[in-house]
Amino acid sequence: MSRISDQRILLLVISFSASVQSTKVLSEWKKCGDLECEKAMSRVQATTDYSGPDCRYLNFKTGEEIIVYSKLSRENENLWAGSKGKDFGYFPRDAVKVEEVLIGEEVEVLTKETDFLCLHEDKYTFE
Q1: Percentage of the chain surpassing pLDDT 90?
Q2: What is the rounded CA–CA span in Å between residue 18 and residue 100?
Q3: CATH number, residue 91
Q4: How many domains is the chain partitioned into structurally?
């Protein structure tokens, strides 16, 4: 009987997590260098220090270099996603200046809920 209760609780938690996840999607669309968003789009340099509101955001200092892999589009065009070393996250496009464009054409694709996951100590968490 205890095992059935545990399974029901687990299903309830998963269901609740799914509803919370959907409220934290930052945009339904993004622009990338390829359909899989694996190709680097540009190399940018931070023009200001930035500390994001949660773990989905990339923190950086003025002068640091960031590689951009996607740009949110339509309802939230101000946020780009990229990496600095092994850190990855979103940041405002007005906090950087483009140093080098690495692709010729951008493609627009739908985002996925997994685009907005936080990674902490090798575990994915939803905000």
Answers
A1: 66
A2: 38
A3: 2.30.30.40
A4: 1
